[in-house]
Amino acid sequence: MIVPSVLSTRDAVSRLLASPQVVYLDHREAAAGRTCEWPPWFPEDCRQAVEAAGIHRPWEHQAQFAELAKAGRHAAICTATASGKTLAYLLPIMAATASAAPVLPEPPTPDLPASLRDRLHRNSALYLAPTKALAHDQERVCREVGPKDWLVSTLDGDSDDAERRFAREQARYVLTNPDMLHRTVLPSHSRWASLLGSLRYVVIDEAHRYRGVFGAHVAQVIRRLRRLCRMHGADPVFLLSSATSTNAAEAGARLLGVEKVEVVDEDCSPHPGRDVILWQPAESVSNDATGLVADLADAGLQTICFVASRSLAEVISAHAQDRVTSGARVASYRAGYLPEDRRRIEARLQDGSVRAVVATNALELGVDISGMDAVVIAGYPGRLSALWQQAGRAGRSGHDALVVLVARENPLDQYLFGHPELLFSSSVEATVLHPDNPYVLGPHLAAAAQEAYLSPADEEFYGSAFTEMCDMLAGQHVLRRRGNRLFWTRPERAVDAIDLRSAAGKGIDIVDMSTGRIIGVADEATADRTVHPGAVYLHQGDQWLVDEYHPIEHHALVHQDLPGYWTQPQSASTVRILRQERRRDFGRGYVAYGQVELTEQVVGYLRRDEITNDVWDSVALEMPTHTMITKACWWVIPDAVVDDLKLDAVHLAGAAHGAEHTAIGLLPMFSPCDRWDVGGVSTVMLPDTGACTVVVHDGQAGGAGFAEAGFERAEEWWHAATVRLAQCPCESGCPACVVSPKCGNANQMLDKAAAAALTAAMDPLV
Asked: Which helix (H) or strand (E) holds 695?
């Protein structure tokens, strides 16, 4: 560990390198930026405002992106954190909406009659962020760099009636989020006609966040937006701001539902020198991260530590504060804080009165805290894009940056630490997005029909799946057909059945039974596992015991307690292959992808000591059985392999189960998901294949694309599991290889040695 007298990142790196916990160092030299002249069309009043904010010339990538937007081309900018992506899209937006002499995209709105297009004397733009906080940060940036009379409005669930009216009727730049657009603006589009009909640009910030089921939902919201804009006389240019991606053009086009998205990904901004240290903890990720934060704060380095959970942010910040010796202040920062608390922490970081902050990814997402001296990342965040976004918070102007990545004890972190080239030499992940998921597309088509009847012409927005899904909705009497038009005829709002953050519909309210206050909401799809009777539910660092669970009424009743244990659900799962869509040879067996039916039931839970993790007892439950149709990737191990390995049924079950766990833990390296986004089932003999089968499936109905992405790289994925099992030094299995925190049967029937033998025997890359 470093000592309190260290005053520079270079000295800190030198001290850290003396620790046996350092397993790898990657150094990047500083680089100068490249500037250019302001675009000739950029209005003088806007230029003066930007220069007054201290920006005298744009970076080359900013000007390039602005030119694409001005030319009326959908575009994505994919450059590093703090590279100036915000100004890149604000240049054309300010020109169109903030200037006394507006400069509009060319051609402004193709294929629209001039009478419709020009009926409104208003030019506006819309900004969409995945969080409310990010939209409020955007407003602050607009105040800093834009003309002082620029009409900017933030629209979210906290906006009062006056602010909403201003956004509808007057504002030139409206800052909101997909949820607000989905629930408020689009269903009442006639009231918002002035805004929708005058849109020239739509910004989608943090576009890489829109992946999986959430991304599919937002993609459908964007299609509904484009459809209604066209109806009201606009055809806006879409501008995407994103972390670097290997498929930014493809993912952007899929998100928007358009044919082509241009990409600007050459970062011309300057960046400091940077040292990234891989740190294998001596004790645990939390203990070592605590020590690093305290020591870096004592050394006078402004530090941010990123953690995976709210509770861990609170714990590490409190313990780090106890360990500092210099009087430095350490704070926590997470979702759920009031805006004024959040602003106060940010201000204190900036003025130095807070030396270090321990944060969830609430601080990762665009909050104006950059130019720190050091970043500590407590556990690989699951995706390279997230890793480099967090790392990008380090680096003051003219000062080197220090990043310390602390490994967790799981297969993914341990594999990457053994193969650091995968972190530093690999491209970031492709964004996985399937807007045509029928469980997503169907409800949004119903919402679109309520907004304005559907007709064959709408296939332009929804693609080839449109006609079949419309026929299905009509056949189910969700929509009513009149000629070639489809109408919503029910009294309720169609949008109220759609939760953008889940494919499972309405969540489960968690209610404090002593006060009636709703303390949180559980995803309906996972509520049986998290808020079953007797479960310990964690919320903002507090422990709550579930007394009653009423899934039909969509609530669970809880009371606050300190039980001294935590609960681990136990479940039983079966899988049935409905349709094999793709297949190829894999070693001596084969790998396949297709549609499966998953049946799962929570059958009980374990009570485990919160300190030792020892099992207190097992409690049986009578919970309903749930069936879900989703997508999966599966490996089939022929009997000949089993015979050669001389595995009986018991050892084969342990081998398949261990291989399943290890594969799931490593999947985020090949598909941009979290291990909680997927599930698995392994069996010694699956009737549908007639052999031992290991199945990894998407955790959402209809599929989210993660299993398919895994199938595409199945050989590399399985090989990584082989390597992890062979290299893990444990004797009988541990969290770094086969032990899973989400196992439905509490990690019973695991055989590490047999799993290692099985994966090696099937590995096509050995």
From this structure: strand 691-698
**Alpha-carbon gap, residue 79 to 89, rounded angstroms:** 13
Across 256-317, the runs of DSSP E, i.e. the strands, are: 262-264, 274-279, 303-306
Beta-bridged to residue 26, according to DSSP, are 276
8-state DSSP, 410: S
Q: Write the burial class of residue 580 (CB in 10 Å: 0-12 exposed, 13-18 middle, 19+ buried).
A: middle
**Class for the domain spanning 9-29+271-424:** alpha beta
pTM of the model: 0.82
Convert the pLDDT of each residue in 55-111 to its tens digit: 999 999 999 999 999 999 999 999 887 789 999 999 999 999 999 999 999 864 556
pLDDT of residue 378: 94
Using an 8 Å Cβ cutoff, are 605 and 535 in contact?
yes
Residue 672 and residue 504: Cα distance in Å, rounded? 21
User: 44-264: what fold?
Assistant: Rossmann fold (3.40.50)
Annotate 142-169 with DSSP letters as a single string: HHHHS-TT--EEE-STT--HHHHHHHHH
For residue 612, the model assigns a pLDDT of 82
Q: What is the DSSP string of 55-90?
A: --S-BHHHHHHHHHHHTT--EEEE--TTS-HHHHHH
Rg (CA), the chain: 27
The domain locations on the chain are: 9-29+271-424, 44-264, 438-497, 508-563, 567-762
